[in-house]
């Protein structure tokens, strides 16, 4: 394992053509970014409806800056789209960005990756130049060495590290800032499988990043795979840790998790990021990757109590929020009207995968509550799940109208700006449960009944 932080030569990579297989979150962002840096790129997507949407310059999900850049690169033809994987034949570097969804037992479903590997092997069999295959899909350690490499070799009848190269290059981008994160990665990890060389990938990145090139760390393929899981599990653990502290603070008068997090974040050994207590982490990565790591550990007979605890704390955390609501109303929510502000798993995205709203809303409905919901972007997606069981509102004021309790579940900037007046004016009983800690407790406690994660509320203290 070693670091490289000198500039790499991009000579000889001038006309390099690249293919990206899988136009999901990672693949589309990468393809659009490479094309915007004048790399001729082919994006492969076999889902016809996604492909049709993309061809109309519409990303299938919202991401800041993505749509205008997609429009530009399609117009300039630096990005071409296809549903035919054999189109990768005209490219020398192929990025694999297909999904690895979770199975019911939490383990990773590799079907898409293995199918794509077989197709790529078919191309390698005919290749006259040495192709570089880059694995960006998140796969558990040893998958590339023990599954992907053998497929590529056996289906092509060629040798990895001699006839083609295979490199694991994990992705660390976040939804909501995917384009920025892709433009400015904090580190580039390249895990070389077998005797593969990552030189072509380093040269490609040198060309697209120029002076902005991040430090490159070269490892073996399995270490690179482990880095991705360790990275995500560590961040998830930080969140579950601060949520555990929040749950203690909730029962200790005079303590506030926000101040605790701020103070410990000043310790350079801890750092301030990912210490925001809330209703639990969601999204397409943390829940899936932590589950996959737990399943992987159990498969190889390694006990992993810390990772399991991270997962368990997170599974319980949404119910810390529903408990505040249920306790407030003495058990039954029959006939209570509850407004939910925020449905997406975090702000600046319309993604609702593993969003806490999808756990909290059914729990409240089950207890007889009537739900009104608002989100700046995600109501359309939530409607597909709850249909007419809840009411969808275009404005915060409309959502609050006549309700007995309001629960804030996503940290959208527009909720941060809310003043007590809007709750007092529109709600039947102005009770606010701030599961994201977006409001100022001093101001809100002085005006209405305010409850929050990680803080014993004045209202409950006096009850
Ligand atoms: C994450 C990783 O950050 C990224 O590196 C990886 O490539 C993909 O997974 P993402 O899922 O887009 O990115 O969102 P992130 O900003 O990490 O938030 C994940 C979840 O944790 C969200 O539900 C968020 O609300 C929650 N979170 C985050 C907290 O509850 N508290 C925090 O302090 C930070």
Summarize the model shown:
The chain is of the alpha/beta class. 43% of the residues lie in helices and 14% in strands. It has helices at residues 25-36, 48-55, 66-75, 111-126, 143-156, 178-183, 199-209, 221-249, 257-265, 286-299, 305-328, 357-366, 379-386, 396-400, 413-416, 420-426, 441-447, 458-462; strands spanning 2-4, 17-21, 40-44, 79-82, 93-96, 131-135, 164-168, 188-192, 216-220, 337-341, 370-374, 391-393, 405-408, 431-434, 449-452.
Number of helices: 18
| Rg from alpha-carbon coordinates | 24 Å
The count of β-strands is 15
Q: Give the CA-based shape.
A: elongated
| Unique ligands | uridine-5'-diphosphate-xylopyranose
SS-based class: alpha/beta
Adjacency order of strands in the biggest sheet: 1-9-8-7-6-5-2-3-4
Break the fold down into its secondary structure elements and pairings.
Layout: E1 2-4, E2 17-21, H1 25-36, E3 40-44, H2 48-55, H3 66-75, E4 79-82, E5 93-96, H4 111-126, E6 131-135, H5 143-156, E7 164-168, H6 178-183, E8 188-192, H7 199-209, E9 216-220, H8 221-249, H9 257-265, H10 286-299, H11 305-328, E10 337-341, H12 357-366, E11 370-374, H13 379-386, E12 391-393, H14 396-400, E13 405-408, H15 413-416, H16 420-426, E14 431-434, H17 441-447, E15 449-452, H18 458-462
Parallel strand pairs: 2-3, 2-5, 3-4, 5-6, 6-7, 8-9, 10-11, 10-13, 11-12, 13-14, 14-15
Antiparallel strand pairs: 1-9, 7-8
The protein binds uridine-5'-diphosphate-xylopyranose.
